[in-house]
Amino acid sequence: MGLAVLCGVAKAQGVADGHVLSSTAVSRVFGDGRKVETVVLEYDVPVSNKSLGTGSFCVEGKEVTRVYANTVPERAERGTNGRYVIIEVKAEVDLDAQPKQPTEAELEKKRERDRMQGGPGLRAGWSTGGGDEYPGNAVVVQTASIKTAKGITYKASGMPMGSTHERCLVADDFRQEEFISPYTGQALPYNIYLPKNYDPLKSYPLVLFIHDAGVASGPVTHTLYQGNGATSWAEPQAQARHECIVVAPEYPFITVDDNWNYSHHLDATIALLRDLQTRYSIDAKRIYTTGQSMGCMSSIVMMLKEPDLFAGALLVAGKWDPSLMGPLDKQNLWIISCEGDVSSNTLQGRAVEMWRRQGSCVTEATWDMTLPQTRLSEEADKMRAEGNHLLFTHLTGGNHRATWFVAYGIEGVQDWLFEQHK
């Protein structure tokens, strides 16, 4: 029987092996969403590291890359006899990743929504259902015998072991809170990250991230799991370069639509930022906004409504009516779109043409989206070097969603944003 068959036999509700005390799935958020990258099995006694190999276990739907023992429940460069078996699996960005396909029941719900709102398409103020899933669990099967440190054999049971615990690196460092809109009295759930050594006597920049329509009305943590637009700023490496507060609302409804309509939730977001400034030590001259698709459009609307609020913006895979974007040439903007996203690339391009006619200089470049992050950061540094406050990056090929699979976490782009001040 092949490993794929063994790993696909059943969904486990918990550990099913008498020797395994717990199974922890450890995930990380990539550009295309949360993915499990490690499974930690806690055994009743120390396990022999030499008895382990990539064929010792399989993980359902994953490619196992390393298996070793450790004395602590963490990854290590080298294995050593210990009570924890560390299973590393392949986890990387899939530029062609697509959202979960809707069931017939979900399609009927969508048809009913369209009937109620008078026609197909997303409308500001309506819910998408928030049905996308970003699982953080794992099912493991022991597929070969292993030995304890004392030489006792633990035979392969072939039984699926489900996760008893889940951890999501960085995303777990966010707190979940609610803000009550002073305009409608409705609750706006949001996630907030504070630097590890937050000091109220210091002043911190703040990054606001706004998700796309795909997770509107989902659980509050969905905006952290759907992609790394929020978590990339809170990664340890990013915080080491630019300590900042990160805020990521989870909108219960669509905030903007393709007909240039927007909902009251954007006014609530502006009120939220003002409220946070009364409770945390935030540098009012270094508040930044970023978002993907709906989030990008929401950022544009807020900058038009409150031109003195944001010091800079990273606009990913979005658009707005170009005829209304003239005043934004006074803002510090970096636009990133995929060439394959015709709507975003074209409409943002028309705004750029208008800004140039108004006398503004815009730095424009095309990047190969398949390059590693280090190379993309080098390309970003070249654009920064021109010294303009308006930048437009075209990613080769791709599609709408692929834009944010790549855009966040590029160090050169992050560095540019934190250089901006009011």
Description:
The protein has 422 residues and is α/β, with parallel strands linked by helices. It has two domains: 128 residues, Immunoglobulin-like; 246 residues, Alpha/Beta hydrolase fold, catalytic domain (Rossmann fold, 3-Layer(aba) Sandwich). It contains ten helices and 19 strands. A hairpin with a 2-residue loop joins strand 1 and strand 2. Helix 8 runs parallel beside helix 10.
- Helices and strands, in order, run as HEEEEEHEEEEEEEEHHEHEHEEHEHEHH
Summarize the amount of helix as a percent range.
10-25%
Which topology of the largest domain does CATH recognise? Rossmann fold
By CATH reckoning, the class of the largest domain would read: Alpha Beta
Q: Which structural class best describes the helix and strand composition?
A: alpha/beta
CATH superfamily of the largest domain: Alpha/Beta hydrolase fold, catalytic domain
Mean pLDDT: 92
Counted beta strands: 19
* General form: elongated
Kindly report the spatial arrangement of strands forming the biggest sheet.
Answer: 11-12-14-13-15-16-17-19-18
Give the N-terminus to C-terminus distance in angstroms: 64 Å
Instruction: Tell me the number of helical segments per DSSP (H or I, 4 or more residues long).
Output: 10
Largest sheet: 9 strands, mixed
What's the oligomerization state?
single chain
CATH-defined architecture of the largest domain: 3-Layer(aba) Sandwich
